[in-house]
């Protein structure tokens, strides 16, 4: 009988992006908007981000178990991370990177590109709504709440369960996706996942690992073995953990 879940599931945040750099610059200068040269979906990795993705691939190349299924967000920074990871030997050179739109970044709607100060100055009612509802439930016009992200990720996990049982799988996506997958897989509460989020940002190319435990629960389940591990970067690239460009809406 084919196991219901992957033998190992790695969830990785993309490497540092040019958007992360632009966000840091905007906050340092007190700007209301983050200066981006393209759509968020098209923002590439920074030079450091490329080094991080390569370092991660080299680290996996030395491991006994490597992914034989690669899933990635359609955003350029996630695809580039997965491609550099593969090129560095992190998985088979011929392994196809499967793009799944359900892994995309949280959509920020009218808040896109605004810093926290920008939201307060230009759309103060949204700052108030978010304060009242909390980021788990607040949905900006044209955007998503964390609950919306969780809904599409539940569908993604159904696909993973159906097609990739018993196989080592890697997902390359975004900070909110990493946290929302933890919420789903570990059956956490709103308070529990927000407490984890409060402890600090998910590092660029940080690795979260689950392993299938046949003895857990009634039919076996995925069990967290590592969260936000940055050991692959220690000797090869600086560790960064800045939020994505639209941190104000993400939190």
Model description:
The longest helix is centred in the middle third of the chain and has 18 residues, at 146-163. The relative contact order is 0.23. The protein has one domain: Rossmann fold (3-Layer(aba) Sandwich). Helix 3 links the parallel strand 2 (69-72) and strand 3. Mean pLDDT is 91; it is low at 246-251. With 251 residues, the chain is an alpha/beta fold. The protein contains nine helices and six strands. The termini are far apart. The protein has helices at residues 18-29, 47-61, 76-87, 116-122, 124-133, 146-163, 175-185, 190-198, 247-250, and strands at 8-13, 69-72, 97-99, 168-173, 207-213, 221-229. It has a six-stranded mixed β-sheet, sandwiched between helices. Helix 2 (47-61) packs across helix 3, helix 6 (146-163) crosses helix 7 and helix 7 runs antiparallel to helix 8 (190-198).
List keywords for this structure.
251 residues, alpha/beta, Rossmann fold, six-stranded mixed β-sheet, 9 helices, 6 strands, globular
List the helices and strands and how they pair.
Layout: E1 8-13, H1 18-29, H2 47-61, E2 69-72, H3 76-87, E3 97-99, H4 116-122, H5 124-133, H6 146-163, E4 168-173, H7 175-185, H8 190-198, E5 207-213, E6 221-229, H9 247-250
Parallel strand pairs: 1-4, 2-3, 2-4
Antiparallel strand pairs: 1-5, 5-6
Q: Return Rg in Å.
A: 18 Å
- Helical percent range? 25-40%
CATH topology: Rossmann fold
CATH architecture name? 3-Layer(aba) Sandwich
Q: How many discrete domains? A: 1
Please tally the β strands and state the result. Answer: 6
**Envelope shape:** globular
Strand content: 5-15%
Along the chain, the helix and strand elements come as: EHHEHEHHHEHHEEH
The CATH superfamily bears the name Phosphoglycerate mutase-like
Structural class category: alpha/beta
The number of helical runs is: 9
Distance between the amino and carboxyl termini: 43 Å
Please tell me the overall pLDDT.
Answer: 91
| Assigned CATH class | Alpha Beta
Low-confidence stretches: 246-251
Largest sheet: 6 strands, mixed
């Amino acid at each position: 009988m084919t196991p219901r879940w992957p033998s190992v599931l790695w969830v990785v945040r993309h490497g540092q992006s040019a958007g992360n750099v632009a966000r840091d610059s905007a906050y340092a200068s007190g700007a209301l908007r983050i200066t981006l040269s393209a759509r968020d979906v098209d923002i590439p990795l920074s030079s450091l981000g490329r080094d991080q993705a390569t370092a991660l691939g080299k680290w996996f190349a030395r491991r006994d178990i490597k992914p034989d299924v690669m899933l990635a967000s359609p955003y350029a920074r996630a695809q580039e991370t997965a491609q550099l990871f593969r090129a560095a030997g992190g998985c088979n050179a011929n392994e196809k990177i499967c793009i799944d739109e359900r892994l995309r970044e949280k959509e920020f709607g009218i808040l896109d590109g605004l810093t926290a100060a920008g939201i307060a100055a230009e759309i103060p009612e949204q700052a108030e709504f978010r304060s009242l509802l909390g980021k788990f439930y607040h949905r900006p016009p044209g955007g998503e709440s964390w609950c919306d992200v969780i809904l599409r990720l539940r569908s993604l996990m159904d696909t993973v369960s159906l097609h990739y049982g018993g196989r080592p799988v890697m997902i390359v996506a975004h900070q909110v996706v990493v946290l929302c997958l933890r919420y789903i897989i570990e059956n956490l509460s709103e308070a529990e996942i927000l407490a984890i989020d409060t402890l600090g940002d998910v590092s660029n190319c940080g690795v979260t690992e689950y392993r299938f435990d046949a003895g857990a629960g009634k039919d076996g389940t995925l069990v967290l073995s590592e969260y936000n591990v940055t050991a692959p970067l220690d000797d090869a690239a600086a560790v960064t953990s800045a939020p994505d460009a639209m941190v104000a809406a993400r939190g």
